Amino acid sequence: MDRRSGGRSGGPRRRAREIALQALFQWEAAGNPLETGLEWAATEYDPGEEVLAFAAELARGVTRHRLDIDGLIARYARDWDLDRLARVDRNILRLGIYELLYAGRPDVPPPVAINEAVELAKRYSSEDAARFVNGILGQLARDRGLAEGDAGAGDPAEAQPAGPPVPAPGAEGGSTEP
After folding, report:
1. Coarse DSSP helix, strand, coil percentages of the chain, rounded to the nearest 5 percent
2. From start to end residue, where is composition biased (Low complexity) (predicted)?
């Protein structure tokens, strides 16, 4: 396994997003300081300064805007309690929403931010989670005028993403209980 990439495919920004996701997961699951997760990734993967700097920017940005981001997740994941989402899915959504609304990076257009979150969900969660992430981020982008499509046109119920994936029994961070 290539320690520079952590065995992952994709370019440096995708590796940075993976590292940010891992740091956020450790921060939420184990209560570790965010910086501890970033330091672990630097040691484990030796991603290089640029990759680690982008990962840190993303992870710190998510934590700085977490309450607003979580409010948006709760709003767009209708009829689904935020705490019931699998931890990995919740943090993928947080990263995607941060990149869409808060990062202020013109070099990451909305379709790229959405696609990168979907790819994280495919790799670290499931195809169902990827569709769920795509539905939430796509609708948010349309509602904010960040993506093509008629935001607010048609039946709002049809525009809402399907319910979140139900984690497999024993899966980390989620619950199948109503």
Report:
1. 65, 0, 35
2. 148-161
Looking at domain 65-164, its CATH superfamily turns out to be NusB-like (1.10.940.10)
Within 66-148, strands assigned E span: none
Tell me the pLDDT tens digit for each residue of 129-147: 999 999 999 999 999 999 7
CATH 1.10.940.10 in the chain is located at 65-164
Question: Structure pTM?
Answer: 0.79
pLDDT at 150 over 60: no
pLDDT at 50: 95
Structure tokens that stand for 57 in this block: 């920017």
Q: Report the interhelical angle of 12-29 vs 87-97 (nearest 10°).
A: 130
